[in-house]
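Is this the right way to post structure tokens for a design question? Let me know if I should format differently. Anyway, here goes:
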């Protein structure tokens, strides 16, 4: 698995659109954990870590923000998310942060593992060594 933008199913209707997430439809795993980010102050950043084993799908369910993936050499890839029918899929050992949140932005996070503090890599130098 690699970092990628995932198109989610969208049902268009004159009353509004509907998007869903389920295993086999835009999601390569059964979610075991769901959380969301919201009310992020202007200029703030979230994330700034990697997971050892966990995969994650991040979907903007309101507003917009960027998911910034940092490679071991410091180069960044930026994924601008502003559509509720698209998300970014992040495999394990992907250093990520989220930035540039619009007013009232909300990010939905679906993970293939339950919360485990030991799964977090919060030191970039350790991340670089693990990826080497």
């Amino acid at each position: 698995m690699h970092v990628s933008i995932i198109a989610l199913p969208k049902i268009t209707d004159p009353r509004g659109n509907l998007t869903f997430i389920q295993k086999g439809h835009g999601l390569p795993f059964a979610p075991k954990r769901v959380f969301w980010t919201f009310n992020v102050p202007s200029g703030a950043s979230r994330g700034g870590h990697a997971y050892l084993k966990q995969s994650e799908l991040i979907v903007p369910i309101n507003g917009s923000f960027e998911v910034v993936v940092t490679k071991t050499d410091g180069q960044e890839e930026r994924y601008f998310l502003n559509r509720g029918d698209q998300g970014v899929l992040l495999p394990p050992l992907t250093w990520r942060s989220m930035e540039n949140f619009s007013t009232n932005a909300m990010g939905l996070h679906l993970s293939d593992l339950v919360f485990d503090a030991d799964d977090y890599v919060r030191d970039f130098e350790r991340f670089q060594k693990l990826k080497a």
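Format looks fine. Someone answered above. Worth noting: DSSP finds one helix and 14 strands in the chain. The two ends are 18 Å apart (CA to CA).
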